Amino acid sequence: MWEIIKAGGWVMWPLIGCSVAAMGIVGERLWTLRRERVLPPALLSQVWGMYRQKQLTGANLRQLKAGSPLGMILAAGLANYRHGRDIMKESLEDAGRQVAHELERYLGMLGTIALVSPLTGLLGTVFGMIHVFSAISHGNSANPTVLASGIAEALITTAAGLAVAIPATLFHRYLVGRVEDLIIDMEDEALKLVEMIHGEREDGEEHP
Question: Which phi and psi angles does 39 have, rounded to 5°?
Fold first, then answer.
């Protein structure tokens, strides 16, 4: 492996850095975006029980807000439910935008790595070919060692750039899709809370 890195030249180092950064982002986002962490099961039922039992104290709302992204959104709505349906929905939407921004953290960087890595590999390819043609221009065309090192630099950096970019692109698409699904589900839970509190459902349908 070390020989491959040396053969690829200095371009291999930024590619290695991109690879490490991409793996770190993917691991952190996969852990952070677990569904049970973002949307805890039965949280809406628990919140409804707190509302029915008049337990919406400041301490309980702070605990709800700190517990999960969905809890943060529901806590914002509960803090403003007395001001009417429209104000409650606005507070839910504001909290939802903040949560969505938090869920999308680092995904832009991952997309940038997926875009930049093959270009960096291509840059290494260009330098490798320059090395080859420079050797030829100096009369070293008969020296296979000189030519082989330039060609190896060109091919290795291209392969390394693609090896970083392909999984980074796949994980970026996957994580963006997961975030979108989670946001839609959180919006649905928030709307259910608004309808339940402001009595638009029948009594038999009030419980989630």
Answer: -125, 80
